[in-house]
Design goal:
About 5% of the residues lie in helices and about 30% in strands. A hairpin with a 2-residue loop joins β2 and β3. By secondary structure, the protein is mainly beta. The two termini are about 25 Å apart.
């Protein structure tokens, strides 16, 4: 199973810098750099509480779904890496302010 290291501490699925969502969706079709990607699974803990406490998942996810067809690790709508890094450069309020820091242009 893939794992996701996440520095977006305001995400409801973040627990100790690991993603506890069962499946995540990375977006950014046509991206040329990390800042043009995002984690579509992001939910602000200010609005959705701490969802990580309700998941059985511990630091791994079932799948990393991906719509970034310009990424070197993209394959059949999935990320082919075993682990990725999700982050942000500032305080995050919406999913479009996150990014897949593991993105590498083909």
């Amino acid at each position: 199973m893939p794992s996701i290291s996440c520095s977006v501490v305001s995400c409801s699925y973040n627990k100790d810098h690991s993603c506890n969502a069962h499946v995540i969706q990375v977006g950014g079709k046509g991206a040329c750099e990390c800042s043009q990607t995002c984690c579509g699974t992001y939910l602000d803990c200010a609005n959705y509480s701490d969802l990580a406490q309700y998941t059985d998942n511990r630091e791994t996810v079932e799948a990393i779904l991906c719509r970034v067809d310009t990424c070197a690790y993209y394959g059949n709508d999935r990320c082919m890496l075993d682990s990725i890094q999700i982050g942000a450069t500032e305080r995050v309020n919406v999913y479009t302010e996150t990014e897949c820091q593991s993105f590498e242009k083909k």
